[in-house]
Each structure stands twice: as structure tokens, then as C-alpha cells.
Amino acid sequence: MQFANFGQLYLVTYDIPADRRRRKTAHLLEGYGQRVQYSVFECRLDAQRYRELQKRLQHHFDLSEDHLRFYPMTEHTLGQIEVWGGAKPAQLQDLIL
């Protein structure tokens, strides 16, 4: 499978203790990818959208309390994803014709 034209797939995770910041973060991430767990999103982003997302997240992120991680996924790891229950990873669904 070739994913180069679709951007990099990131697994985005967060742990945010404040309800308001957590809700804002989730709402923002919903515009960039698919929620797969309560605080885990799969987002396929080109370089511009990746920078845009990071910039937007910074506006309501507290580095002293909040934790946010971006895990880039390779084509190799995409082929090894196992899903038990729920929907297939969004980016794989979008590419299956």
C-alpha cells in the first residue's frame, strides 16, 4: 500500500486533568482524525496540517499539567495494526476501494 499522498498517520494521545481543556482538545482533534479511544485519536496529516494542529493545541494546553503525545506510524506498522471490536482505523477504511 502507498500512503505518501495522504500524509503521515499519527496516533495522538493525551492525558489532561482539567475538564474544559480536555473537552477542547478532544473537540479540536475530532476535526483532524478519528477517535479510537477516550483519549486516543488516529490522524492522517500532511506537514502543513500537522503544524496547524500543533499550533491550535498550544492555545489551550498547560505544559505544567497536561500530557500530549504524537506517535508517527510507518507503513510497516500500519500493516500490523490489529483491531478487536469497533471500527477499522479510519485511514485504512478511506483507502480501501
TrEMBL record:
Gene3D superfamilies the record matches:
3.30.70.240
Entry keyword Magnesium? yes
Gene Ontology process terms (BP) = defense response to virus; maintenance of CRISPR repeat elements
Q: Which residues form the signal peptide?
A: none
Give the protein's cofactors: Mg(2+)
Q: Name one Pfam family in it.
A: CRISPR_Cas2
Q: What class of enzyme is it?
A: hydrolase
Keywords linked to the UniProt accession? Antiviral defense, Endonuclease, Hydrolase, Magnesium, Metal-binding, Nuclease
Annotated residues for binding of Mg(2+): D15
Q: Which InterPro entries does this entry report, sorted A to Z?
A: CRISPR_associated_Cas2, Virulence_VapD/CRISPR_Cas2
Query: EC no.?
Result: 3.1.-.-
Example of a GO MF term: hydrolase activity
Q: What does this protein do?
A: CRISPR (clustered regularly interspaced short palindromic repeat), is an adaptive immune system that provides protection against mobile genetic elements (viruses, transposable elements and conjugative plasmids). CRISPR clusters contain sequences complementary to antecedent mobile elements and target invading nucleic acids. CRISPR clusters are transcribed and processed into CRISPR RNA (crRNA). Functions as a ssRNA-specific endoribonuclease. Involved in the integration of spacer DNA into the CRISPR cassette.
HAMAP family given for it?
Cas2
Sequence similarity: Belongs to the CRISPR-associated endoribonuclease Cas2 protein family.
* Quaternary structure annotation from Swiss-Prot or TrEMBL: Homodimer, forms a heterotetramer with a Cas1 homodimer.
- The protein's name is CRISPR-associated endoribonuclease Cas2
Q: What is the species of this protein?
A: Gloeomargarita lithophora Alchichica-D10
Q: What is the lineage of its organism?
A: Bacteria, Bacillati, Cyanobacteriota, Cyanophyceae, Gloeomargaritales
| Gene name of this polypeptide | cas2
